[in-house]
Structures are given as C-alpha cells and as structure tokens.
Design a protein that fits this description.
It comes from Linum tenue. It is found in: Endoplasmic reticulum membrane. By secondary structure, the chain is an all-alpha fold. The chain has 4 helices and no strands. The longest helix has 23 residues, at 2-24.
C-alpha cells in the first residue's frame, strides 16, 4: 500500500508541475505535449532499472536449494510408488 501512495503522490506532483508549466507558459505550447511522453519513458526506464538492481541483488539460498531437491526426490518416489512415470532420474 505504501508504494501506491508514493506513486499517486508522485503523479499528482508531476501533474501539478505540468499544469503549472502550461499556465505560466514557460515552455512553448509546441513542446508541452511531449512532457507526458517523456514522463512515461522516464518511468519505464526507472522501472527497468529497479528490476535490474533487484535481479543483481537477488539472494541465493543454497540451503533452500538442497531442501527443494530433497522434496523433488521425495515426490518422484511417491509418484513411482503410485505407478506414475516421472521420467528419467
């Protein structure tokens, strides 16, 4: 929920800034229609950056990997006992 409020407040601030620029005529009217496009592209780049950083910092869990392999072996054994072909070992 906190992220939703951050995003909504950021969009509100950017919208207010954009309306302010339109009212003050600081930027020529021919360029103001590009501002939302720049905003969308910037947010997309930010999102890709955050995904990349998250992937680079993703923790590895060797203990959990071992437990997962044990669970898989147990499930294969259970299914073999029931007569289900689970493929090669």
């Amino acid at each position: 929920m906190k992220h939703i409020f951050k995003i909504i407040s950021l969009l509100a601030a950017i919208s207010a800034f954009w309306v302010g620029l339109l009212q003050a005529s600081i930027i020529p009217r021919t360029h103001t229609w590009l501002l939302p496009i720049y905003l969308v592209v910037s947010l997309g780049c930010y999102g890709l950056l955050m995904v990349g950083v998250g992937l680079m910092q993703f923790p590895t869990c060797p203990q959990e990997a071992v437990l997962l392999q044990q669970d898989i072996a147990e499930a294969k054994g259970f299914l073999k006992d029931k007569g289900v072909d689970v493929g090669s070992d």
